[in-house]
Specification:
This protein has about 375 residues and is an all-alpha fold. The chain has helices spanning about 5-25, 45-70, 75-80, 85-115, 125-130, 145-160, 175-195, 210-225, 235-260, 275-300, 310-335, 340-365. Helix content is about 70%, strand content about 0%. α4 (about 85-115) runs antiparallel to α6 (about 145-160) and α7 packs across α10.
Length: about 375
């Protein structure tokens, strides 16, 4: 592995860990409940407030960062493979894991969820009933991989059409003015689009339509950052200005969450042209930009190396992403009888799940042929 890319791989591993813990938080009082089959009833004010803040922060930057990092590696792959081979390789690499999750893992997850609710039949019986009812599986968390495939194909055509243009390779790191203009324009676009496509309640094959432009532009920003060597041009003054704005927004958000005025429970934050939905659109873009720059700068300065352990984590991260819902369901249901302070139980489950997920993922990557797709 090249030294200059070590910190990016470490950052990607960090994002996977945050995603996993974010999904666990929904079980123990956080706002990201999603469709988890088992959720504990939590009334503790501290736990609910702490996890709601945690969820809000990670929702604001984790997925944007994921798409940025994914886009960062695309230009070199495109140059190395060419248009047709690049698209073919991406289709194979991304579609097979999606199909595996849709046909197999999602069935297991749904079955475990139903058994937790009282279903006493076998997995075979459950799958047979599901297929009889026209339910063949769910894409679930793999919407992210499906989006990566769509974005990669879009980039391939973008490269083919415009790679000869003088502006294709950016020459300088964006100014604060351009960063502010980007944040303003994207925030307004997201706000308007969510009038018709709110965060909850509208998706296509689990793709969050109301956020797709946000994710696509961060994917393209990653590609532009690679082409213009932006990560080598990050200036502490610029980074600190935007991170200071992020800190102010987080303090403001904590106040809204603690007082019960965040709008999450009522859904006014999800879209519909409300003031809170506008605030949340700004929140997502500002955190996406500010935290991304700050953490990349930190990882580059402090974590631009890999030990055997961190390299193993990095190599296992994609498999960890695929299998973590199954492990979360198994562990949370198994620990249902354990009585603990909710926040302490959340921390305990995080430690257990992360250990199992990454250990199992590392073993899976040792299987011959698996590394071609992960």
């Amino acid at each position: 592995m090249k030294q200059r890319l070590a910190y990016i791989d470490n950052y990607r591993t960090f994002l996977i860990i945050i995603v996993i813990t974010g999904h666990i938080s929904g079980v123990y009082g956080g706002t990201g409940k999603g469709t988890w089959p088992y959720i504990e009833l939590v009334n503790d004010f501290f736990t609910k407030s702490a996890l709601a803040t945690f969820d809000a922060v990670i929702l604001g930057f984790v997925l944007s960062s994921f798409f940025f990092v994914s886009g960062y590696f695309v230009p070199q792959a495109m140059e190395r493979k060419g248009f047709r081979r690049f698209i073919t390789d991406r289709i194979i690499k991304f579609s097979l894991p999606v199909l595996f999750y849709f046909l197999i893992l999602s069935q297991i997850n749904r079955y475990l969820g139903q058994t937790a609710k009282g279903f006493d039949g076998s997995l075979t019986e459950f799958v047979s009933q599901s297929w009889h009812n026209g339910v063949y599986g769910r894409i679930g968390i793999m919407w992210f991989v499906g989006a990566l495939l769509l974005f990669s194909v879009a980039y391939a055509f973008y490269h083919k059409l415009f790679s000869k243009r003088s502006w294709f390779i950016p020459k300088a790191f964006p100014s604060n003015y351009l960063i502010g203009a980007f944040i303003t324009a994207l925030s307004l676009f997201i706000y308007v689009s969510r009038i018709w496509f709110p965060l909850k309640g509208f998706s296509v094959s689990d793709l969050p339509i109301g956020s797709m432009m946000l994710f696509f532009l961060f994917f393209m920003l990653g590609a532009r950052a690679n082409q213009g060597s932006w990560l080598e041009k990050l200036k502490p003054k610029v980074v600190n200005i935007w991170f200071a704005i992020v800190c102010v927004l987080i303090v403001f958000a904590v106040g809204l969450i603690v007082t019960g005025n965040s709008g999450y429970e009522s859904g006014t934050i999800q879209g519909g042209g409300t003031l809170l939905s506008l605030s949340f659109a700004v929140w997502e873009v500002v955190l996406g930009v500010g935290i991304l720059m700050k953490l990349l700068q930190l990882f580059k300065r402090k974590l631009n190396y890999q030990s055997r352990f961190s390299e193993a984590l990095s190599q296992s991260s994609f498999v960890a992403y695929i299998i973590h819902p199954t492990i979360i369901i198994l562990v949370t249901v198994a620990l249902k009888p354990v009585i603990l302070f909710p926040f302490a139980k959340f921390l305990l489950v995080c430690a257990i799940v992360l250990f199992i997920v990454f250990s199992l993922s590392w073993l899976i990557t040792r299987i011959p042929g698996v590394r071609k797709f992960v």
